[in-house]
Amino acid sequence: MAQDFCVPTMCGVIGTDSSALLRQVPAAPLPVLADLQGLVSLVDRQLSACRRNSTQLAVMVLQIENSVPPALFQAMSERLRGRLRATDLIFQVGVQAFGVVLLGIGRSHVVGVQRRLQRALDGQYGVGDEQVHATVRIGIAAHPQPGITGAELVRAATPSAN
Known about the structure:
The structure is a single chain. The protein has helices spanning 36-53, 70-82, 107-121, 150-157, and strands at residues 6-9, 12-15, 32-33, 57-64, 89-93, 97-103, 123-127, 130-134, 136-143. The chain has 162 residues and is of the alpha+beta class. The strands form three sheets. It has a five-stranded mixed beta sheet, sandwiched between helices. The radius of gyration is 18 Å and the shape is elongated. The protein starts with 5 loop residues before the first strand and ends in a 5-residue tail after the last helix.
C-alpha cells in the first residue's frame, strides 16, 4: 500500500491521496532591490559562477509603463513568478520594475521567454472592483560575451537604455 505524502508547492500543498485538495497559499513577496545597482551586484556574482562553470546567463529588466497600485504590482509579480522556472532569480527593483536572472539560458531562448512574458503581463487586471490596464516594457541581455560585466548586461537589458 502506497503511503500518503504531501508536496509543498508555490501555490499550495498537493497530496497523493485523491481526497487531498490544492489549497491556495499567498506567495511570499519578492526580494526587493532598491535600484538597478543592486541587480548589477547580483549579476556580477552570477557571471563569475557562469564563467567558472562555462554556463549561460540571461538578464531581463521589466519596467511597468504606468503607475500601478500595490495590489496590481503584487498580482503582476505572482503572474511573473508563475511563468518562470524555479531556478530563475526574480526581484522587485525599485517601485515599478522587476529584475530577472535566468540561469543556464542563452540569447536564443530568452527571446521566447520575453515574448511569453509580454503576452502574460500586458493587459487588464481586476483590482478590487476596478479594471486596471498595465503595460510592461521588457529588455533582455545574455552572456556569454567575452569581458562583459554585470553593469553592461543590466544596462543592455534596461528598456529605457535601449
